[in-house]
Amino acid sequence: MEALIPFALNALTLISILLIVSMGMAIIFGLMNVINLAHGEFITIGAFTLVVVQTLGGNFWLALIAAPMVGYMIGLVLEKALIARIYENPLHAILVTWGLSLILQQVIQLIFGAAPQSVTGPFPGSIDVFGVAYPAYRLFLIAFALATFALTIAVFKKTRFGLDLRASIQSSEMASVMGVNPDKINARAFASGAALAALAGVLLAPLTAVTAFMGINYLARSFFVVLIGGAGSISGVAAGSGLIGSLETALSYEIPTTVAQALVLALAIVILRFRPQGILPA
Amino acid sequence: MLRVGKLTSGYGSAQILNGVDFELGAREVVAVLGRNGVGKTTFLKTIMGIVRSRSGSIQFDGRDIAKLATHEIALAGIGYVPQGRGIFEKLSVEENLLMGLRSDPEGKSEVPDFVYGKFPILAERKDQLAGTLSGGQKQQLAISRALCGNPKLLLLDEPSEGIQPNIVHEIGSFIRELVEGREISVLIVEQNLELIGLVADRFEIMVKGELVHRAPKSELGNEEMLADYLSV
Predict the structure, then answer these.
(1) SS3 content of chain A, % helix, strand, coil (to 5)
(2) Which among A174, A182, A282 has the least Cβ separation from residue B90?
(3) Structural domain boundaries of chain A?
(4) Burial class (CB in 10 A: 0-12, 13-18, 19+), A186
(5) Whole-model pTM?
(6) I want to staple A195 with a disulfide (CB 3.0 to 4.6 A). Which of A72, A136, A142, B182 is the partner?
């Protein structure tokens, strides 16, 4: 029983990061049919926002507010300049976002150097969870990520933007017949996805080595979360994150992490073979 | 109200409309008939900007809308109910109607009373997913949704398709009521002669992407002429 608690919490940490990262990707994929291979770089951008804020003397909380804004702005500019021109052709979308990913990685490395940056999170020390000491920061991360997920669902279900988004995911053409400007919805959705990824980057940064390439680690996983869950479906994202996050954590206890990741992705391919529409499609 | 001149459009290398001339007055209901594949649906889609026009003009309310994007055309005051109805199946009935309000010039945010008054079933099922409605109910929802935006022109593509005869009647009398009750014109593409007889002031016949014959409603009884143009 006592061994289960850290496992469950470790799994939850990964699941909650995957939740936030994948949600953005799922919305972009569901809406525009664009697999954004540069999505991971927005995680990196979020983490480096924390680096910059801390270098300038600011604290973690400031970065937690600033990073989604930075992610949103950069996402908006890139969407208008690049992504908006390639929706029609999925192959172009893959090549362009992949190229964009490489460029962003190199630009970040040019600015900040190749050495890993170190950042500090709030809440050093541990908290007792049912008799097991567990890092307080990770508990905060889980709670914050779940709250963000709940808030995103609320925006999706209850707001005007959320309704436009859900309608456009079902039929962009009918949404524009209703008077919704598809360019505007696409831009805002893409930028919101980027903002969520950047937020995940800040949350992740204190737990990992912050380098220009840290986002790649999450790209494949969140891509499979989206595919397994079902494109454009928020409940699918929850199911996919839960499955991939807990499996990977469980396997990592027995075998090297990289092998565990490979196994999980292999399993994802098997699942998609039998259920190509995902577990809970939109 | 609507004035279309020498309109051409199509998909890729296939030209479908080959110079359509058409006029629709205020509070007029005009039906377009024709065999399958002559371009009736493309005609409506081109007015709506879903299929881009290649040449010719589309004047609506004195304004050239041929180059506008679909959402701008919707905001200009044209409501469109496509073939197959275009319902958002995974939104609730009410959410579908709320989407219809997006093109309301006054920016209203609540479903107008007349919708639920006219179709009480939509009020009863407003929290249900629209995909669970029957074909006739979906058609009621689709027309109501288009009316939520308070359009000056309504484009209907085969509203009778897949619907029971008694509901066709109901929809026909509803369209007639609309035109008499408010400032709206209707352009309807339809195969069902009975529905055309119910709602239309006159009709035009499309052959190979052109409107070739215009006639008053009384000519609907001229079976020889109809057989000439419409029989396969």
Answers:
(1) 75, 5, 20
(2) A282
(3) 4-215
(4) buried
(5) 0.90
(6) A72
